[in-house]
Amino acid sequence: MHATTTWQNTLTRRPGCKPLSRDAVAYIANNNDQAAAWFGERLRVEPRIVTQITVENPVFHGVKKPEDARINVTQADLQRLNDWFAAACENGLIKSGVEPYKP
Predict the structure, then answer these.
(1) Is the CA virtual torsion 39, 72, 12, 21 positive or negative?
(2) How far apart (Å, rounded) are the C-alpha atoms in residues 84 and 55?
(3) Residues 90, 93, 99, 103: is their CA dihedral positive or negative?
(4) Is 72 left (phi over 0), alpha (psi -120 to 50) or beta?
(5) What backbone torsions phi and psi does residue 9 show, to the nearest 5 degrees?
(6) The dihedral of CA 85, 90, 93, 94: what is its sign?
(7) Which of 18, 15, 19 is nearest to 73 (CA)?
(8) Rounded distance, CA 54 to CA 72, Å?
(9) pLDDT, tens digit, for every residue of 56-103?
């Protein structure tokens, strides 16, 4: 499965959604402190949490330039996301079910 196809499907189904770009991944990977401050402020979380996530997330590992970014979505990723949405609805974390993502 190619990430572009998945993001195109997401954009078609959710017009307000913006795809993660290789440029954004490269910027975050190479400017972690600044990105953590920006995202921390925007998301209203501690920048150290954003930093920790970027260190632990393999999307950012080894990225020096945009071409290095691996932003593809696997079938396992989609299943994990769909499982999370189902559990979140069952446990009252979200108010209604979410249509499952499909490749």
Answers:
(1) positive
(2) 22
(3) negative
(4) beta
(5) -60, -45
(6) positive
(7) 19
(8) 17
(9) 888 888 999 988 988 777 888 888 888 988 898 899 888 888 787 776
